[in-house]
Every structure is written in structure tokens, then in C-alpha cells.
């Protein structure tokens, strides 16, 4: 079996609208940190100089949002309303794990302009892929936006889904929709321009707001979808980190291809 990495890295060295802060304690600093913690928390004295080279373990501390790098959006990310169930929408730690290890399908949208595609455009992509998605397939949109990752243009120049396209996938039983772009919706500027032109609120974040009506998750900021050997015939694993009460969780998304 071949494993294809579909994830973008968390990298404090590249541009993000919410910058990543990555602080590193060296192994020597980690030894002193450990000794201080043992003394303060448990009353145990230990001289880190007794360790080989005075070193123990390095320690990384990151400050970032759950929407940095490849991540899975939970239903609670879309708002406090859940028309499909009593009570509030579920957080990422409460989602069923079997949603996130499923047969995958990649749809080629690389020829679509900046903005959002509709249901008709998705049906054309189904035809090129050879079939419609089956229920619970993980459907991923290859827009080519990942080539801009790490630059400001990554957050403004991509293709998303409109409301009709999102509803089409949900009608077919898809519960996890992924994209190699920053967002499953069109870029902010594009949506707001359309709203100012028409006054139609339905053009504002329709893919996300569809999650208030029906429960589903998004995988945003995928990468390397062009490395998949075919539109179907592989398994996707995108298990999200179990963060209690969170609207999203980071994921190391991969495709598993039998050979």
C-alpha cells in the first residue's frame, strides 16, 4: 500500500492571517524546565547537570488557531443552530470516527475561476470521474490553490462551492467534503462583492451555513491532490485531533492506495 500525504504543514515561517508562534526549548533548556517543574509541583529536587551533556528533551509550544494547516471543521464551527437535531451542533471531539476513514473521490476543478462553482459544474466533474459519490465517500476538490500556500494570495485566489453544489453533495450522502483551498466557500472579497451587487444574503458563506441545516464536516487546506493516481479507488484517512469543545481539529490527511 502506498501512502500519499494530503496535508499542508503548520509552519511559523510562512505568512498566515493569524500568525503561528512556535517557541522551542532546547534539550538543555528542557532539562532545566523539567527540574523546575518537578520541584514546584512535586517537591522533588534534581540537578539537571547530572544528565548526559546536561540535556533532557526539547519542548515545543505553539500558538495557533485550529484552522491553521490541514484541519477538519466540526458542525459547531458553522453556528449555534442545528436544524437537524435537538440541542447544539456537535464539536470535533464528538464526531464519529468512521466518517474520517472512508473511500475517497477527487474532483478536478482546476479550470474554474476565482469564485464558486455550482451543482452543474460538480455534475460535470462527476462525469469526468466516472461516477457520482457514494454515501459517506470523502469528496475532495482539487482546485490547484495549494500551489499558493504560504502566501497572501492563498487566502484570496481560489474556487469554492456555492449553496447548490454543497447541497448536491449532501443530498448524495457525503458527510465530509474537502478542498485544497483555504475555504470551502468562495474568497471573502468575492462573496461580499456579490452581496453588495445583489443584496442576496444567500451568497454569503453558503457552504458553511449549509452545515446548520444538515450535519457535515469540511476538510480545508489539503494539498497534493494531483498526486492521486485516479479520481477514485483509494481510501482517505483524515482523523481530527480530539480537542474537547472545539469547532475544528488538525488532521494529518493521507490517501491509502493499494498497489
Question: Count the helices. How many?
Answer: 5
* Poorly predicted residue ranges: none
Distance N terminus to C terminus?
5 Å
The total of beta strands comes to: 13
Question: C-alpha Rg, in Å?
Answer: 21 Å
Biggest sheet: strands side by side, in what order? 1-13-11-5-7-9-10-4-12
GO molecular function: arylformamidase activity
InterPro entries: KFase/CYL, KFase_sf
Protein name: Cyclase
Keywords for this entry:
nine-stranded mixed sheet; two-stranded antiparallel sheet; elongated; alpha/beta
Describe the overall structure.
By secondary structure, the chain is α/β, with parallel strands linked by helices. Helices cover 21% and strands 21% of the residues. It has five helices and 13 strands. It has helices at 27-42, 119-129, 163-171, 188-198, 206-213; strands at residues 2-5, 21-25, 59-63, 71-73, 101-108, 115-117, 138-142, 159-161, 176-179, 217-220, 234-237, 248-250, 254-257. Strands 1-13-11-5-7-9-10-4-12 form a nine-stranded mixed β-sheet, covered by helices on one side. The chain is elongated. The termini are close together. 35% of the residues are buried. The mean pLDDT is 97. InterPro entries: KFase/CYL (IPR007325), KFase_sf (IPR037175). It comes from Streptomyces humidus. This is Cyclase. GO terms for molecular function: arylformamidase activity.
Summarize this entry quickly:
By secondary structure, the chain is of the alpha/beta class.
Topology:
Elements: E1 2-5, E2 21-25, H1 27-42, E3 59-63, E4 71-73, E5 101-108, E6 115-117, H2 119-129, E7 138-142, E8 159-161, H3 163-171, E9 176-179, H4 188-198, H5 206-213, E10 217-220, E11 234-237, E12 248-250, E13 254-257
Parallel strand pairs: 5-7, 6-8, 7-9, 9-10
Antiparallel strand pairs: 1-13, 2-3, 4-10, 4-12, 5-11, 11-13
Helix pairs in contact: 2-3
Amino acid at each position: 500500500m502506498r501512502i500519499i500525504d494530503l496535508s499542508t504543514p503548520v509552519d511559523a515561517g510562512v505568512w498566515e492571517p493569524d500568525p503561528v508562534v512556535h517557541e522551542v526549548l532546547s534539550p538543555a533548556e528542557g532539562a532545566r524546565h523539567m527540574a523546575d517543574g518537578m520541584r514546584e509541583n512535586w517537591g522533588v529536587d534534581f540537578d539537571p547537570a547530572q544528565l548526559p551533556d546536561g540535556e533532557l528533551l526539547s519542548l515545543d509550544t505553539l500558538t495557533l488557531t485550529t484552522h491553521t494547516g490541514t484541519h477538519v471543521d466540526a458542525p459547531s464551527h458553522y453556528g449555534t443552530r442545528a436544524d437537524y437535531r435537538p440541542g447544539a451542533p456537535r464539536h470535533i471531539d464528538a464526531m464519529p470516527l468512521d466518517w474520517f476513514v472512508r473511500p475517497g473521490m477527487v474532483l478536478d476543478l482546476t479550470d474554474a475561476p476565482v469564485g464558486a462553482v455550482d451543482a452543474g459544474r460538480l455534475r460535470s466533474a462527476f462525469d469526468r470521474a466516472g461516477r457520482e459519490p457514494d454515501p459517506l465517500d470523502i469528496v475532495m476538490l482539487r482546485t490547484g490553490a495549494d500551489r499558493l500556500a504560504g502566501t497572501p494570495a492563498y487566502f484570496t485566489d481560489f474556487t469554492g462551492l456555492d449553496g447548490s453544489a454543497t447541497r448536491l453533495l449532501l443530498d448524495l450522502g457525503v458527510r465530509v467534503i474537502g478542498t485544497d483551498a483555504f475555504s470551502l466557500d468562495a474568497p471573502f472579497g468575492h462573496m461580499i462583492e456579490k452581496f453588495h451587487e445583489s443584496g442576496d444574503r444567500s451568497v454569503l458563506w453558503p457552504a458553511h451555513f449549509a452545515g446548520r441545516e444538515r450535519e457535515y464536516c469540511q476538510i480545508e487546506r489539503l494539498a497534493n491532490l494531483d498526486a492521486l493516481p485516479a479520481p477514485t479507488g483509494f481510501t482517505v484517512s483524515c482523523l481530527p485531533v480530539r480537542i474537547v469543545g472545539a469547532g475544528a481539529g488538525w488532521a494529518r490527511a493521507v490517501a491509502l492506495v493499494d498497489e
